[in-house]
Amino acid sequence: LVLRLGPLRAMRIIRLHRVLRCMKFMQMGQRALRRWMLDSSAGTRVLTSMALPLFCFFCLVHTLACIWHGIGLLDDGWVERHPDKHNPFEAYLMSVHWVLGQLQGPSHVAIIGEWEVFIASSVCFIGVVFS
Questions:
Q1: DSSP codes joined into one string, 32-90
Q2: What is the distance between the alpha carbons of residues 3 and 32, in angstroms, rounded to a whole number?
Q3: Of 40, 34, 102, 45, whose CA–CA distance to 68 is shortest?
Q4: What is the rounded CA–CA span in Å between residue 3 and residue 94?
Q5: Alpha-carbon dihedral sign for residues 32, 35, 37, 39
Q6: Percentage of the chain surpassing pLDDT 90?
Q7: Which of 40, 93, 117, 127 is the S-S candidate for 44 at Cβ 3.0 to 4.6 Å?
Q8: Angle at the Cα of 73 from the Cα atoms of 68 and 79, rounded to 5 degrees
Q9: What does DSSP assign to residue 97?
Q10: Is the entire prediction scored with pTM above 0.90?
């Protein structure tokens, strides 16, 4: 039996396979967490229930800071206008500061480019949703 698939259909099948694998991996993680929560003590459950949202928030802030830093590296982005643009660690800290500022209030980083405006608006939307 020979299947004749076009390149677009083959890509969709591959993408669907990846999505299904990711969903299965997430389900396995949820089952393992549930099993661990049932087998652990009450103190461990409380600690885990506090640490898991903090870890997820840290991952969200880190991802958004990396996106903001990447947008700032584009032509005439905020990294180019910043005096310490050669120090990547300081630029990352400024990105984290910007993200936290957008989630909690205004930031001193100027928004000029269209990508910067798009990302800033998206992060403000996320801040409204989570507040």
A1: HHHHHHHHS-HHHHHHHHHHHHHHHHHHHHHHHHHHHHHHHTSTT-HHHHSTTTT-HHH
A2: 38
A3: 102
A4: 53
A5: negative
A6: 2
A7: 40
A8: 80
A9: H
A10: no
3-state secondary structure of 109: coil
Q: Is residue 60 pLDDT above 80, yes or no?
A: yes
Indicate the SS3 state at residue 125. helix
Q: Which amino acid is at 22?
A: C
For residue 115 the two structure tokens come to 């990508």
Structure tokens at 34: 């549930």
Structure tokens at 114: 């269209």
Cα 75 to chain centroid, rounded:
23
pLDDT in tens, 21-56: 888 888 887 888 777 767 777 777 777 777 888 788
Rg (C-alpha) for the chain, rounded Å, is 21
